[in-house]
TrEMBL record:
Top-level taxon: Bacteria
Protein name (record): Transcriptional regulator with AbiEi antitoxin domain of type IV toxin-antitoxin system
Provenance organism: Actinoplanes italicus
InterPro entries for the chain: AbiEi_2
Length: 321
């Protein structure tokens, strides 16, 4: 593979550190390069890349967790140890598991001596971001209301809004959303290893097509959500405020270790600003649409990935560029 650097004026004001062309045979692609001392989604979110060329992130070392998140978000990268994810015009490079001791030591020293950027996608911050993605009308409103919807403290909510503004995702005195499509991509990529596992309550095997019986509000997600174009869902994902062991008995869910789990119970952390969404008598309802999208993407099933793209197109606002 060959690399050539484009003139520095090739992409002015895009936020790229350099513009390069990668080529192999007749295949070629122009990339905007960002150099990151910390190769994480949070560092990338603070990068303010405004160009249209695909992004190539370069740095000393990427952790296995960050590498998986980058791949899920289709963000290409190369680190000093030789780990890489690059794909263009039939060229595909995917190198994993390499460790550079020198880079590792340098990274450890930087953690002690330097100031780390806050993790924009930690559990509580990810909850606030989900609330803003699901109900953008909250933006510019009272922070106390945002905190109540997201299930976070007022201080945590203030902190997230501050960092979103600094990263360029909220702009102007009215705090209008900017680049929320990009924010959704990064939030979704971080969900499967961040917020998602922290919401786990229980898992079982059962019949996903069997109507669920519950005395508390239940919120469906993933391929079992209402309106997702799946004729026969293979899994059931449901969010509940609390877990009652009787639910497994009533719904005939099994913990048999010989059967693959396909019923996933997770903790509901949000309170919808729309009263109809919290109607106890309405029966199972859908979880907020970004959660459904994230659960579909986290499944790692190409079939569900295509369904997720359709789902996203239904709900994401056209101005989320």
């Amino acid at each position: 593979m060959r690399l050539s650097r484009e003139p520095d004026h090739a992409r002015p004001d895009s936020g790229a550190d350099a513009v390069i062309t990668l080529s192999r045979g007749d295949a070629r692609s122009v990339y905007a390069v960002q150099v990151k001392s910390s190769m994480t989604l949070t560092a990338l979110a603070h990068g303010r890349y405004m160009g249209t060329d695909p992004l190539l992130v370069i740095g000393d070392r990427i952790t296995r967790r960050s590498a998986e998140a980058f791949r899920e978000a289709n963000i290409q990268f190369v680190d000093a140890a030789g780990n890489a994810f690059v794909a263009f015009d039939g060229v595909f490079v995917d190198v994993r598991g390499r460790v550079d001791p020198v880079a590792h030591d340098r990274d450890n020293r930087s953690l002690v001596a330097g100031v780390q950027e806050p993790n924009l996608f930690s559990r509580s911050r990810a909850q606030v971001i989900m609330a803003l993605l699901a109900w953008p009308e909250l933006i510019g409103g009272q922070r106390r209301e945002i905190a109540a919807v997201a299930g976070t403290s007022l201080g945590q909510t203030h902190d997230v809004l501050k960092h979103l503004t600094a990263a360029g995702y909220l702009s102007g005195s009215s705090k209008k959303p900017a680049r929320f499509g990009e924010l959704l991509d990064l939030w979704t990529a971080a969900y499967s290893t961040g917020l998602g596992p922290r919401l786990h309550l229980a898992r079982f095997s059962g019949d996903p097509g069997r109507p669920m019986t519950t005395e508390q509000p239940a919120y469906l997600s993933g391929e079992s959500a209402d309106g997702v174009d799946i004729a026969r869902p293979a899994t059931l994902t449901v969010y509940l405020s609390s877990w009652d062991p009787k639910l497994a008995i009533v719904n005939r869910w099994s913990t048999n270790p010989d059967r693959v789990p396909n019923v996933f119970v997770r903790r509901k952390f949000w309170v919808s600003p729309r009263p109809s969404d919290e109607d106890v008598t309405a029966g199972p309802q859908n979880a907020p649409w970004p959660l459904i999208y994230a659960d579909l993407m986290a499944a790692g099933d190409p079939r569900l990935t295509e369904v997720a793209k359709t789902w996203r197109a239904r709900f994401a606002r056209p101005d989320w560029s």
